């Protein structure tokens, strides 16, 4: 049975109601699988229409927060699952940021029981994965309706469109157009930051994070890229999760300094349980990037 604490969503109500912040924010507990809702007193006065709008935002933002019992990664000694037996499977690596995008999307849609997580050991991949599941031999891959699809940005859009759960992309044409632009920029952003990893300075990384700061200033109806949490935030989160501690540790460069929108975005993402379930230990991430980007002399 999973409980969901919604007090962290107070900012959604306050930003739309323009009411002064209460001293005691209500705590809402929803027991998964039951209609059991308890509300503590909340000294807030809402206009009826604003309250209605706020509840709509809340309904599309929250998820069931079902916590996975994460299975061990399958390696060359593991038997294959019964592929194409009607089960929908998401093949991931626990360490891959591209796979993490799709994993977060699955969680935010509340599909933990509909899409089975199948982790693959990328350092000791089973032969059957390439032969029977996904010939490109990469993660992520989604087995659905007797087909296997790949590429992380394609998959987050596919899951959002083809499965139940709250929509993670806006209908507003301006937001949709800007969201498409930001999704297209993700590879450029990642390359600009990792290029700085290999050099002495941080100019290219700084330019990339300045772009992010400006993008986060586009809409003012929430702390995320398109106001409310969307596929755009999910696409960037795994990489910023890795870039932030690495740049601070190796370059002594704090990406939040001088970027209040980015600092607020990181804070809000870190409150999201669906994201947190996919995260790795920052020290582990830093060490992994050191092995990848630093020469033996530098290390």
From TrEMBL:
<dbReference type="Pfam" id="PF13417">
    <property type="entry name" value="GST_N_3"/>
</dbReference>
<dbReference type="InterPro" id="IPR044629">
    <property type="entry name" value="GSTL1/2/3"/>
</dbReference>
<dbReference type="GO" id="GO:0004364">
    <property type="term" value="F:glutathione transferase activity"/>
</dbReference>
<comment type="similarity">
    <text>Belongs to the GST superfamily. Lambda family.</text>
</comment>
<keyword id="KW-0216">Detoxification</keyword>
<dbReference type="InterPro" id="IPR004045">
    <property type="entry name" value="Glutathione_S-Trfase_N"/>
</dbReference>
<dbReference type="InterPro" id="IPR036249">
    <property type="entry name" value="Thioredoxin-like_sf"/>
</dbReference>
<feature type="domain" description="GST N-terminal">
    <location>
        <begin position="86"/>
        <end position="167"/>
    </location>
</feature>
<dbReference type="Pfam" id="PF13410">
    <property type="entry name" value="GST_C_2"/>
</dbReference>
<protein>
    <recommendedName>
        <fullName>glutathione transferase</fullName>
        <ecNumber>2.5.1.18</ecNumber>
    </recommendedName>
</protein>
<dbReference type="InterPro" id="IPR040079">
    <property type="entry name" value="Glutathione_S-Trfase"/>
</dbReference>
<dbReference type="InterPro" id="IPR036282">
    <property type="entry name" value="Glutathione-S-Trfase_C_sf"/>
</dbReference>
<dbReference type="InterPro" id="IPR005442">
    <property type="entry name" value="GST_omega"/>
</dbReference>
<dbReference type="GO" id="GO:0009636">
    <property type="term" value="P:response to toxic substance"/>
</dbReference>
<dbReference type="GO" id="GO:0005737">
    <property type="term" value="C:cytoplasm"/>
</dbReference>
């Amino acid at each position: 049975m999973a409980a969901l604490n919604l007090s962290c969503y107070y900012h959604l109500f306050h930003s739309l109601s323009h009411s002064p912040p209460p001293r005691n924010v209500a705590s809402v507990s929803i027991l998964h699988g039951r209609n059991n809702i308890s509300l503590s007193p909340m000294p807030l006065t809402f206009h009826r229409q604003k309250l209605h709008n706020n509840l709509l935002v809340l309904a599309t933002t929250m998820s069931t927060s079902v916590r996975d019992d994460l299975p061990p990664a399958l390696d060359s000694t593991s038997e294959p699952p019964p592929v194409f037996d009607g089960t929908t499977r998401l093949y991931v690596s626990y360490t891959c940021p591209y796979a993490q995008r799709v994993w977060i999307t699955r969680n935010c849609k509340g599909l933990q029981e509909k899409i089975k997580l199948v982790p693959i050991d990328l350092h000791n991949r089973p032969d059957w994965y390439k032969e029977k599941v996904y010939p490109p031999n990469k993660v992520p891959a989604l087995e659905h309706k007797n087909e296997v699809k790949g590429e992380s940005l394609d998959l987050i859009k596919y899951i959002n469109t083809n499965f139940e759960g709250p929509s993670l992309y806006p209908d507003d044409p301006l937001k949709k157009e800007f969201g498409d632009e930001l999704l297209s920029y993700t590879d450029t952003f990642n390359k600009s930051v990792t290029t700085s990893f290999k050099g002495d300075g941080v100019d290219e990384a700084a330019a990339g994070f300045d772009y992010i700061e400006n993008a986060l200033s586009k809409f003012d109806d929430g702390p995320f890229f398109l106001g409310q949490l969307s596929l755009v935030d999910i696409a960037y989160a795994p990489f910023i999760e890795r870039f932030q501690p690495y740049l601070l540790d190796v370059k002594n460069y704090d990406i939040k300094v001088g970027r209040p929108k980015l600092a607020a975005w990181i804070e809000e993402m870190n409150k999201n349980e669906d994201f947190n379930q996919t995260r790795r230990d920052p020290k582990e991430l830093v060490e992994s990037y050191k092995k990848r980007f630093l020469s033996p002399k530098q290390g």
